[in-house]
Specification:
Distance between the termini: 57 Å
Order of helices and strands: HHHHHHH
Radius of gyration: 17 Å
Oligomer: single chain
Helix content: over 70%
Amino acid sequence: YQLADDQSNKNSAKIQIVKQVLKYLRENYRVNFSAEDLAKNLGYTKFYVSRVFKDVTGKNISAQVNEIRVANARELLMTTDMSMSEIAVACGFENSSYFGKVFKKITNMTPIEYRSRER
């Protein structure tokens, strides 16, 4: 039974790391940060944090960041008259063309289509 407990503790530790990663991402999605910054903040190596996150969630960290950014962009598209480039910057995208590409990949529509459909 000891092995089962060890496995359970390992999983619990991994879930705690994922929670810490998600908290960090939600608090920092507006700024450009590296995997190194994230890992250093949590006290682990970037390789370990990346592997644990992928093992537990099935996603890589950059995909998760993009999902958080797009969720926030959707909110701004529906509730403000901000331009696409203003929304891109406000949500942490480096430029509006990358924002458009990521937004379309996640939502299957462009930000402009989303705004006109949701209003």
